[in-house]
Design brief:
484 residues, alpha+beta, five-stranded antiparallel β-sheet, rod-shaped, disordered C terminus
Length: 484
Amino acid sequence: MEAMTPGFCPVEATGLPAARSVPMSEIEAIYDAVPIGIVLFDADFRFVRINDRMARTNRLPAADHVGRRIEDVLPPETCAVLRAMQPRLLAGEEIIDVEHEGFDIVTGEQRYWQLSYRPLFGADGNVEAFLGTVHDITRLKQAEEQLRGNNQTYRRLIETNPFGVYLLDSDLRFITASDGAMRVFADFQPLVGRDFEALHHRIWNADFATEVIDRFRHTLATGDPYRASSTETRADIGVVQSYDWRLHRIMLPDGSFGLVCYFYDLTERQAYEQRIGLLLREVDHRARNLLSVVGAVARHTIAPTQQEFQVRFDQRIQALAAAQDLLIESKWTNVPIDPLIRAHLAHLDDILDTRIRLAGPDLRVNPRAAQALGMAMHELATNAVKYGALSNDAGVVDVRWTIDAETFAIAWHESGGPPVAPPQHRGFGSTVVGAMVRSALGGSVDHDFRGDGLHWQSRAPADRLIVEAIANEAIDPAGSGRSA
């Protein structure tokens, strides 16, 4: 080491042409001006020269390094790394860009360095020194860590998103996908790492799949975002699905380009809109029918005086309203028959379940049957109060309905009342309990005017009006069920 004077690096050791003379002041200035640490060790890792940047890192003046072994200056973990390099350097190997993690000597903060060492040879061809550069990459590592954290957060946001989101790399392979996207690709798990192009051709028809892949590749190549709506039949499950989707190019953590696709499943929304349209048409249809019924009630309500007409008309409109209330509560799907009958006999609530007795299984009937049966119960009750079993203090009415595998039957039987006879003229009430019920139920209606009261009965095909047996009760051919 005689050729090396403490405090500087000889020109020969730097590899500069020997013919060129470099003033010592310039060499010193270069060493101290560079933004990375530079250090020169002898073959036993004793400090020969160190620039100001490296000396500040070690928190020791440059002059106090010279002649000292690394174990006297550096932390044990750093010494271990350098001693591990020593055999390779002595063998003439150059060691480049080794990352080393350690701690600041004073503050104890975690630091990262990038180390590079090359051997310097003497005149005899033997390694006499090690020239090293030490680059503090702590900020770079922190930025990388922050970037990884941001990427993890971004991926978690994607994965937990209820809408469709998936991320593709530059080879159009899945990096991650949201919970919403997993529903579309549910039959192709695990999804990460799969070839998007191959998968897309399995899900959609060839023409549409090719068109989409071309669009993805265009956005990947140019960065042009893309938005589209599409309705197609899936090739794998044969179901028509609709999507609104957007495509953007993004830069991935490794610096390459990737694609993120956001999509929204329009299938349910379109089905919902179709249902709303259907319901609006149904409401219009029902409103027209109801107005027709109201008009018929008005035309056929006959009374000797205006006041009597108003009373009868109001009662019939209230009966219609009761049926409407039940239909609305059941969302125009089905109506329980027991509450239906009770609603139309509500004005007789003081004798309901005593002189008016209901019995039959728990059933639901469709809206048309509900309206006809409700009006019929109202008209039968009105006649019973005026002329029949409910016109005195002793008569009773039994309302009973039965069902078997094929037939639904409902009966209104009066007893204990005065003798009844067929009406002298047929008004709206007769139409309701006769023609209206026959038309709505698609069955028959029988009237029997007996000495103790009216016996009325209707029979109809069960599948024309019964929606379901509540609580899945077994159909009893005898018609037994809950009774009052």
